[in-house]
Amino acid sequence: MMKLEGLATFVAVAEAGSISEAARRLRLSKSVVSERLAELERGLGTSLLHRTTRKLSLTEDGAAFHERAARIVREVEEAAADLAERRGDLVGPLRIAAPVTFGRMHLGPALYPFLARHPAIELTLELDDRRVDAAAEGYDAVIRHGPVVDSRLMAWRLAPSRRVLVAAPDYLDRHGTPASLDALAGHRGIFYTNRGVADWRFPGATGAEIVRAGVALRVNNGDMMRDAAIAGLGIALLPLFIVGAAVKDGALRVIDAGAEAEPEFIVMAHPEGRRPSAKLRALADFLRTRFGVPPYWENGAAPPPVP
After folding, report:
1. Are 126 and 97 in contact (CB under 8 A)?
2. What is the pLDDT of residues 88-101, one digit of tens each?
3. What's the CA angle centered on 17, arms 132 and 51, to 5 degrees?
4. For labelling alongside 82, which of 150, 220, 247, 254 has CA 20 to 30 A away?
């Protein structure tokens, strides 16, 4: 008889792309994962995976089987969650990805009291500034800053997020303070590589106006962008959740160039077609309340105390 644990293990391996990563996610040894896969393949009478020393991929049968196996595993997980909901409990695994800087500065301090209230939730939080593929990589949700362009995701807004142009007072004393978007082009910029060269976008009379400045630094981390701006390397366009405290204490100065960057939001996005669990909905509600409107970081404040 086919076992559910074998199906779940196969789905985890297919989504993780390796036995070792699936074992880590499932909190099992690699030998147990390998044995469950072998038992499943014996029961089905076919190979589901191509195994080499360098990579693992689905066979043709494996690809066909994966779609239905994944749906069965998800439905069983949702059924178990439904029973827990009936008892008023929030239980079980929850896997979320978030950007490094936002996760460290704001998401973590909000998660700790939530998890303290719901100790039966088993949260896995992975911080990564790359664009995580939530559906393919097995995440229940991803936290993102900015627009969600993946049509396979449904996004919930958690908080508005305003981005501002900032520079160190020393830099502005040496190079002058730009008073218009045109003047920005003559300055050195600190750019976020994950957004590309057209990141400095501002609403204009005929659509988005893109400003291109000289490059002082390109980097894929908001903390380093802020620190580079404080060091006087150039101008950065950063969200207030990163630079609010530095603006408040005078290490950075907000630049009024005659237009604000296009408005953005902190969002929680989950794969379309999966019914969000009660614990995911509860977390989203908790984060909205915790962040506030306007969010506390707008004025450089620390996270609020836990009520």
Report:
1. yes
2. 678 888 889 999 99
3. 165
4. 150
